[in-house]
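Retro notes, item 3 of 5
We never archived the inputs for the zinc ion complex last cycle. Fixing that now. Sequence and ligand:
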Amino acid sequence: MPTLIVCEHCDTVYQRAPLQPGQRARCLRCAAPLYRADLAPPALLALTLAAAVVFLIANVFPIVSLDLQGSSSQSTLWGAIHAAWDSEVGPVAVLVALTAFFFPLLQILLLGAVLLALRRGGLRRSLLVDALHSLRFLRPWSMVEVFLLGALVAVVKMGALAAVQPRPGLYGFAALTLLLTALNSFDLHRLWECLDE
Ligand SMILES: [Zn+2]
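Structure as it came back at the time:
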């Protein structure tokens, strides 16, 4: 973790001090927020488990249903990926499969495994180190929010042509976006510190 922190508003430099859960540091000069305490690992584990459940809901249930001239169809994420693969945009299908399914799934599983291992012990340190490196690599590539935005734009655009209804999968992706944002705001250095302890 960087030891110095600069106030974004008045450029005052501070030495970073450890905070208790729920506390936040403010600039003494201009009172702007500097940083807040990271979630404790048990709270992070709870968030990760919630993300796993929501990931399942988002992927099992259809995202949208479409009614056009009396015929109705609905699609899950994988239905959309299959459809994209079969049409002329195969690379897009691969990109969506990686960034909206495989990378977020790997991220949730790895983070859950690391947190459980730190809690219970029993996993080799070298494995944990590899897992933490992989988590850092996966973070920028997990882009559920981009998929969600694309799906919302499609729902609005298609609304002019057919009766489009959002389905539970879409709400699942919205909740997953929030949970992954919360998980990604966690400073991974904290887990390195837990590993060193
Ligand atoms: Zn300041």
